[in-house]
Amino acid sequence: MNQANKNNNKWDSLVDYFKNPNAISADNVEIVEPVLIKRLKKIKNLNIIDLGCGTGAFCKRIASFANSILGIDTSKEMIKLAKKNNSNNKITYSNKPLLSTDISGYNVLNATFVFEFLSDDESIKIIKYLKNNNITILITNDTDKFIYKTLDKKLDMYTKKADQLFINIDKKSFRIYPRNINDYQALFSRAGFKLVKKYYYKFSKSFIEKFPEYKQYPLDVSPYVTLEFVNE
What separation in angstroms does the CA of 120 have from each of 21, 124, 138, 189, 213? Predict the structure, then answer.
């Protein structure tokens, strides 16, 4: 079994975990998604791909103003739950890899906490494929400063083994590839994209009140950033 299949099986096993509110998904819903939704509402004729759509909750949230939505996820169990709980006549869900999917007609790709799980080689293949379809790309990832500060505090969210970094979700570890803004700019510029906007986030007061366990994490740096890329 290769590493990709191992990771797919891990994501499948997290379906029950993501069914219910928890800090690791609530930060996305309460902190990141409002900014993404505000941005996406400004795009006319929005036909969007949600890469790494999980159980489809975000797809369902944007269905009120999007023309069409394609939710893609490598986890069959996540897609199964998305079709069951977050269906809409505007949404199509798929387990097919993005690189073997016809994406003509789509003008935006959202990838929330996706690229940090992909190596440079895996990322550049996807970015080049998007280049041919004139797509605006919005990616959200953990900031490298937050990752390294969390590692320094020896908390259990991230671990380091040899020279590799991992994020731990419900006692399961996934390899990650931390990058700073310059790293992402260099990666996307290789495929002809330019960075046009940066959106930084911090844990809000209301979020900390709901999930006080996050008080132990470094609050003096932005945990997340969304980067917007367009064709040069």
Answer: 32, 6, 17, 13, 33
Listing DSSP states for 3-70 in one string gives HHHHHHHHHHTTHHHHHS--HHHHHIIIIIHHHHHHHHTTSTT-EEEEET-TTSHHHHHHTTT-SEEE
Per-position b or e across 162-198, b if 16+ CB within 10 A of its CB:
eeebebebeeebbebbbbeeeebbebbeebebebeee
Q: Residues 110-130: what's their mean pLDDT?
A: 96
For domain 3-143+180-231, the CATH architecture is 3-Layer(aba) Sandwich (3.40)
Q: Confirm whether pTM is higher than 0.70.
A: yes
pLDDT in tens, 155-165: 999 999 999 99
> How many Å apart are CA 154 and CA 159, to the nearest integer?
8
Helix (H) / strand (E) containing 208: helix 205-210
Write down the residue that tokens 């590692």 correspond to.
151
